[in-house]
Amino acid sequence: MFVGVDIGGTKVLAGEVDAHGTVVRTARRDTPGRRVPAALVEAALGEAVREVAGGRRVEAVGLAAAGFVDVSRTRVLFAPHLPWHGEDVVARLTAAWNVPVIMDNDANCTALAETAYGAAREASSTVLVTLGTGIGGAVVLGGELWRGAGGMAGEFGHQQVVPGGLPCPCGRTGCWEQYCSGNALVRHARARLGASAVLNAVTGDDPGALTGAMVTEAASQGDPVALAAFAEVGDWLGVGLANLVAALDPALLVVGGGVSAAGRLLLDPARAALARSLVGAADRVVPSIAPAALGPEAGMIGAAWLARQMVS
Amino acid sequence: MFVGVDIGGTKVLAGEVDAHGTVVRTARRDTPGRRVPAALVEAALGEAVREVAGGRRVEAVGLAAAGFVDVSRTRVLFAPHLPWHGEDVVARLTAAWNVPVIMDNDANCTALAETAYGAAREASSTVLVTLGTGIGGAVVLGGELWRGAGGMAGEFGHQQVVPGGLPCPCGRTGCWEQYCSGNALVRHARARLGASAVLNAVTGDDPGALTGAMVTEAASQGDPVALAAFAEVGDWLGVGLANLVAALDPALLVVGGGVSAAGRLLLDPARAALARSLVGAADRVVPSIAPAALGPEAGMIGAAWLARQMVS
Description:
The structure is a homodimer. By secondary structure, chain A is of the alpha/beta class. Chain A folds into 2 domains: about 1-110 and about 295-310, ATPase, nucleotide binding domain (Nucleotidyltransferase, domain 5, 2-Layer Sandwich); about 120-290, ATPase, nucleotide binding domain (Nucleotidyltransferase, domain 5, 2-Layer Sandwich), CATH 3.30.420.40. Chain A is about 35% helix and about 20% strand. In chain A, strand 1 (about 1-5) and strand 2 form a beta hairpin. The first copy, chain A, starts with a strand and ends with a helix. At the A-B interface, strand 9 and helix 7 of A face strand 9 and helix 7 of B.
């Protein structure tokens, strides 16, 4: 039995995943947070793994961590929601659990899962983008994940797309994820909230209560403010993907993350912007934009896949 | 004997290159142009190769073409200065010359040369940028050139960096090479020509006569207008490189092309902008920016290296 664990900002999701990528059983815990002892986080992970195992022997555990994982894949250099900061987490958990442990960042694990079992199964090369609060990214070339010289490849969300643009929590301005993410979607819709009876009703006239899920639901009902927000975010998605295709020319683009649940409301404007923005579009194959196939469990599935690869 | 041929916008440069990357002898021809029969261009290439060979047997010929070379490396899909448009040039020249021929685009050949013999010899992964009239680019990962699914990787110059920015001959706006290239350097200096006694003198008060070489020479003499033009182009170089590093996290950045002859006048502002613009700079190794080592013959040297690899 192989277990994948997705360690997200708010929750830990552990699951047994079989050789076909099917999730057999799962367990959840809340993520204890960043300003707690690391032992608390590690205990929560251990509990989730044990609950999934239910007393059976675990062959190996894969971890998908939301943060910068170093090139040796043993350390989290920085994570916004975790207390880890450079220590050898993999060695510590391997010793504590007495089972082989492997780790990578969540976007890389998502890309591995989509490549092994999902939307990128047939693609010789893939650039994956996940749109959640921000942007996650990963690069798979010739079937292999390109992790970067220091393990930091795929940080597409912090490419500057607007000089002197919107401030980003990373400390710079004009980062792509300020224009193309769940946060950007909510910002667009909130700015025109007064024009939407649907959104005013679901938020109780409180702009602060607006969420990405509300915008998605309103857009699926044809609300013009919500549709305009998706058109704007989708356009920025296509522009940013065109920049990545100009550099890497992958066979396929895969878009996942919570915002992608809107499907064509997001991807149609993205496809139009990609075709318009890509250099040499008339003399090349413009790559398809495919929706991710494995949903929010993809990170966990990819982590389990890594664990399986490690011992086989 | 292996021969490399760099087919540029204005001239054809052929050269015998030994196994250490040393150029033994060269021959030049003018590039006949785009609106001429392809046979005229191919005859010029053949003459240059024969002159280099001087009657000796040629083992193989490598071609570095300024244009889109397809993924099979046999066809030029589009080139701004050549009459080729999709035909199998490699098969035709192999038959005409009765010698193995291989081709790639000029930036890829430059990257192969710098990796085999030059600035990137020790690097596990490299992003190369050449600044000439526009921007050329190439990606070398784990010692291998990443050419893209369709052979179009490395078109960094047409990444959009300013929404609704300067028009580009490619038909779009705000492309990186409009802000960071020899053309951009000249445009900056020309806009402030009146403030530079040095540049006024060398141009004879004719702004249209200003060239990148004049700006480089004036900057090396400390002319403030020329220095400001390099500071501006260098800053954009660092910003664009930060975007590439965010995506690919290479071990090394190499900058070549005519504009890079200015050395630190260009690279110092680029290094400052890279450190300022790169996500997570405090928690990662910021890659060095190295000047290309092989100069304007790099494309030819890389083409000869390709020829040597093909038959060995």
